[in-house]
Specification:
heterodimer; A: 115 residues; 7-stranded mixed beta sheet; 4-stranded antiparallel beta sheet; globular; B: mainly beta; 5-stranded antiparallel beta sheet; 0% helix
Chain lengths: 115, 111
Amino acid sequence: GAVVSQHPSRVICKSGTSVKIECRSLDFQATTMFWYRQFPKQSLMLMATSNEGSKATYEQGVEKDKFLINHASLTLSTLTVTSAHPEDSSFYICSASDSLNTEAFFGQGTRLTVV
Amino acid sequence: KQEVTQIPAALSVPEGENLVLNCSFTDSAIYNLQWFRQDPGKGLTSLLLIQSSQREQTSGRLNASLDKSSGRSTLYIAASQPGDSATYLCAVNGGNNRLAFGKGNQVVVIP
């Protein structure tokens, strides 16, 4: 299957700082990527759809100014958690597909801890 | 809004037994359904993808069925092994690759 690489796998940051997470499709181009968030013992919740060359589409209740998404190329999307607070601590994971409504491939995830 | 439920939430079985994991969804207007495996603290590994026009998919010891009209899918794992211990997630694609996930079936296979 296709490979999606996410970096970093773990990050610890101080409250008030910003953290950038990268998601790359390694062997295919993805015009659309997706960012999910997972709390312990909970399901993955879709945060936003990252669109190459245009603005991201955010799900209801997700603050776009807090979670900045940039999709500057067909193989890279970034999620920046701005002014992070302890409640932003979570597992963030991205996905991509090589075409519409086909198999989704996920990155390894990023464990963010805000202290 | 699509709601996905997975039952049971957790189960333990002795090695060699067959596993049956259930997934139900409320909106039958789906493009496909995908089963994933997640190990603790790790990302998701795709196991099987069933298109809405299909009734089942098989890969090795894994078999997934889909009854779209009743909003159900079942993942069967034959002859379970300790290495099958993980959380299994069901995800429904309602269009444009936006997935709705269940909370998962946490499986422990006892040697």
